[in-house]
Design goal:
single chain; 2 strands; two-stranded antiparallel sheet; 11% strand; extended; alpha+beta
């Protein structure tokens, strides 16, 4: 599977790369388990729990 960004998204990516040329993913950052959920604080990624979404069960 291959994903290609839209022209608008590619422009935004290019702008970020221009402003932050040395931006990279930290080697200490472990891959997320997907699906995932954002915690109650709005920042923390927590493991997905189907019970949180009864409307989709």
């Amino acid at each position: 599977m291959r994903f290609t960004p839209s022209a608008e998204l590619q422009q935004a990516i290019d702008e970020v790369k221009q402003q932050c040329p040395d931006l990279s993913v930290s080697p200490e950052c472990q891959p997320l388990k997907w699906p995932a959920h954002v915690g109650d604080d709005g920042i923390t990624i927590v493991e997905y729990d189907r019970k949180r979404y009864p409307e989709y069960s």
